[in-house]
């Protein structure tokens, strides 16, 4: 059985004047250990779907289950990495990574062991006593990933985690994430609006439509890793997904033109 099952999920935001149907009839099954990207233009409901799986904002209709249990809120089986590095500025790198374990009242020796392992895994050893303000964006995002890994959730939810990074740092962290995913066997649900990023990373890419957010294409990527973005197969898929995303982008742009005309 799939680990995560999204069953006929709908999400409506009630705003003054009109209801926004952010998600409609979403059906998805994600297996344990799969790396799935949600891809689509701004406003298509990627974060809404991810937040529903996280349990931060539940669906208006339908349900999401993890290991057969309906999601009713956040839980230790799901960890979230956000785009903006959600680190505590007054804590060092090591303290930031230890924080979740301290909340869970784990033994000091166990916390130290886990923190040291994660500092190693993410090549953060030389930075353990630094504060977030003294780190580059890429380093901060490594700490954010380590913080989530500390809780050892089987599922990692990531909302455009590398969106704010420059191209080289981004590729570097994508490679790190693939290495960690390989080593630890987590399930990853990763939101992006970069077509190239989704092809580089995912086992499967779920392309979403713009308003209402539905599944436009559920695309298996069966190229071996590491993937070569200059290869013909990579570029064929990039072109094909680009066409799908552009159609939705265009609908978004038309929508905004209509709204502007009403103003
Ligand atoms: N709290 C809210 N209240 C009202 N509308 C909302 C709310 N959150 C999201 N929406 C609307 O729902 C739709 C989906 O938003 P969502 O943030 O999930 O999109 P997204 O795909 O993550 O976009 P982006 O790539 O810009 O992050 C958008 O039209 C957005 O305006
Ligand atoms: Mg979003």
Automatic annotation (TrEMBL):
Superkingdom, taxonomy of origin: Bacteria
InterPro entries in UniProt: AAA+_ATPase, ABC_transporter-like_ATP-bd, ABC_transporter-like_CS, ABC_transporter_ATP-bind, P-loop_NTPase
Domain annotation ABC transporter: ranges: 4-235
A GO molecular function held by the record: ATP binding
Protein's UniProt keywords contain GTP-binding: no
GO biological process, one term: quaternary ammonium group transport
Keywords from the named record: ATP-binding, Cell membrane, Membrane, Nucleotide-binding, Transport
Pfam name, any one: ABC_tran
Transmembrane regions: none
Family: Belongs to the ABC transporter superfamily.
Protein name: Sulfonate ABC transporter ATP-binding protein
Source species of the chain: Dechloromonas denitrificans
